[in-house]
Design brief:
Elements (H helix, E strand, L loop, with lengths): L1 H7 L5 H51 L8 H8 L26 E6 L5 E4 L14 E6 L4 E10 L6 E9 L2 H36 L1 H15 L15 H50 L5 H31 L2 H4 L5 E2 H15 L4 E6 L6 E2 L3 H17 L6 E8 L3 E8 L6 H4 L11 H6 L6 H11 L3 E7 L3 E11 L6
Parallel strand pairs: 7-9
Antiparallel strand pairs: 1-2, 1-5, 3-4, 4-5, 6-8, 8-12, 9-10, 10-12, 11-12
Membrane topology: Multi-pass membrane protein
InterPro entries: ArlS_N (IPR041610), HAMP_dom (IPR003660), HATPase_dom (IPR003594), His_kinase_dom (IPR005467), HisK_dim/P_dom (IPR003661), HssS/ArlS-like (IPR050398)
Organism: Limosilactobacillus panis
Length: 490
């Protein structure tokens, strides 16, 4: 049910998500900036219109306040046009511009006497008259849009009595026009930014995320056939995706090696087990037919079967050791061992086991060296190396062990003077079940897993093991382990 639900989910490309996210992010940022700028600009325009209205009201009211009597049409004419220039007066009302120095072209001025009778008007007002006893400026509903209206009583300069009323309207046409134009520009700019950022995000994601498509295609091919040697094309970039591709290819290489080793391992195990099983089966069939009646044949068959059974037991044990060796980093990560003690112990044990051999130990270290490795594992590695040195020594029965210290590591060497190994074979001696001379190795009891176990153990503790050898001159195995602080020294 869960798989069916997952398969029914609609696939959405990461490029589309990136483009959509970029567009939405740009929209939010640009919207905030645009709203801030739009608000600041329109408020500044409105403030200028309000200041213009206040300035006109102040100038006109001051000019009309020079009259000591209640305002009349004649007194207004005298105050506005002291030179009696009738050219600016037409009929009963004054048309624009009626007060050149005192008002602006888009201000509508209405003057009333104390009884509320209109004495002068520069245009048709959008709002009705309002006679107030204190100065007011407010927004009012006009015919097309809101207008700014100012009301103020006119006081005489001498008696401080109301001689009339002044009403000035600012129709805000220029403000409304600028507001509409600016809003249109902002909307168009907003659409352009969203479109441009979306396209930029899409093409940028196409360029930056192209390696992900290569990884996706590679994974699909590998999932169908894990044995295919296909890799993600590398890119000439220094970023996270380039590192991801490199790590992914390394993982595929490692997986391929594991698959090859597993196939080889199964093949080698089948081959190694086939021989002793066939031998045991042959002897049992021989005994079943007639051999059980012949004491000599019975003894020989039982002895051969026991030998092959023992070899199978050793093979299974070595396979288990190899499996455990691949998990040392998980199970023994905190183990520490004094390397000097283990080297001297193995050296003394082999001197006792093989008195016909000459064992020498060159110890250049005069202090305890502690390495991050389980003691039994280090001993197992040295036993494998020393046992191989003994097995493959010929006339010169000598084995040299060395112990030295580097800057941050300890090096252990095991050298024999026996058969030696050719360069082509030296590259494969650490492979599972590999034998340089299969016939002679089987006679000597080897299954070809010892060096593989030693390598897995040492590499599990972040060390290294290497071989230097040439045919007829012997072999030198070097084990290098990182040094850790001795807890007793702290």
């Amino acid at each position: 049910m869960d798989n069916q639900t997952t398969n029914n989910k609609r696939f959405i490309s990461l490029r589309l998500k990136w483009a959509f996210g970029t567009a939405v992010g740009s929209l939010i940022i640009f919207l905030v900036v645009t709203l801030a700028l739009f608000t600041a600009f329109t408020q500044n325009l409105f403030r200028q219109e309000r200041e213009l209205l206040n300035q006109g009201m102040t100038t006109i009211s001051q000019q009309l306040a020079k009259s000591s009597q209640p305002l009349t049409r004649r007194s207004i004419e005298r105050l506005i046009d002291p030179n009696n220039d009738r050219s600016i007066i037409r009929g009963a009302d004054y048309q624009r511009p009626v007060i050149r120095e005192l008002s602006d072209g888009h201000l509508i001025v209405n003057i009333y006497n104390p009884q509320g009778k209109k004495l002068l008007s520069t245009g048709a007002p959008d709002v009705g008259k309002s006679l107030v006893n204190e100065r007011q400026v407010s927004l009012a509903r006009g015919r097309e849009h809101q207008v700014l209206v100012g009301h103020t009583p006119i006081y005489s300069q001498k008696g401080r009595q109301v001689i009339g009323y002044l009403q000035v309207e600012n129709n805000l046409n220029s403000y409304t026009q600028s507001y509409s134009q600016l809003r249109l520009v902002c909307v168009m700019a907003l659409c352009l930014v969203v479109l441009a950022s979306g396209l930029l995000g899409y093409f940028l994601s196409y360029f930056l995320l192209r390696p992900l498509s290569d990884i996706h295609d590679t994974v699909k091919v590998i999932s169908k056939d894990p044995t295919k040697e296909i890799r993600v094309p590398t890119v000439n970039r220094n970023d996270e995706l380039a590192e991801l591709i490199e790590m992914f290819n390394e993982m595929l290489d490692r997986m391929q090696r594991y698959i090859n080793q597993q196939s080889q391992f199964v093949s080698d195990v089948s081959h190694e087990l086939r021989t002793p099983v066939a031998i045991i089966q042959g002897h049992l069939e021989l005994l079943e037919r007639w051999g059980k009646d012949d004491p000599q044949v019975l003894n020989d068959s039982l002895a051969a079967s026991l030998v092959e059974t023992k070899r199978m037991k050793n093979l299974v044990q070595e396979m288990l050791d190899l499996s455990r060796a691949e998990q040392v980093e998980i199970n023994f990560r905190d183990q520490q061992t004094v390397v000097n003690d283990v080297v001297h112990q193995v050296y003394n044990n082999f001197k006792m086991l093989y008195p016909e051999f000459t064992f020498t130990l060159d110890d250049d270290v005069h202090e305890k060296i502690t390495a991050n490795i389980y003691r039994d594992h280090l001993e197992q590695v040295l036993v494998i190396l020393c046992d191989n040195a003994v097995k493959y020594s010929k006339d010169r029965k000598e084995v040299h062990l060395t112990l030295s210290r580097g800057m941050n590591s300890v090096e252990i060497g095991v050298q024999d003077f026996g058969e030696g190994i050719a360069p082509d074979d030296a590259k494969r001696v650490f492979d599972r079940f590999y034998r340089v001379d299969k016939a002679r190795s089987r006679k000597k009891g080897g299954n070809g897993l010892g060096l593989s176990i030693a390598q897995r153990l040492i590499e599990g503790y972040h060390g290294s093991i290497s071989l230097e050898s040439s045919p007829g001159a012997g072999s030198l195995f070097k084990v290098v382990l990182p040094i850790v602080d001795d807890p007793e020294d702290k």
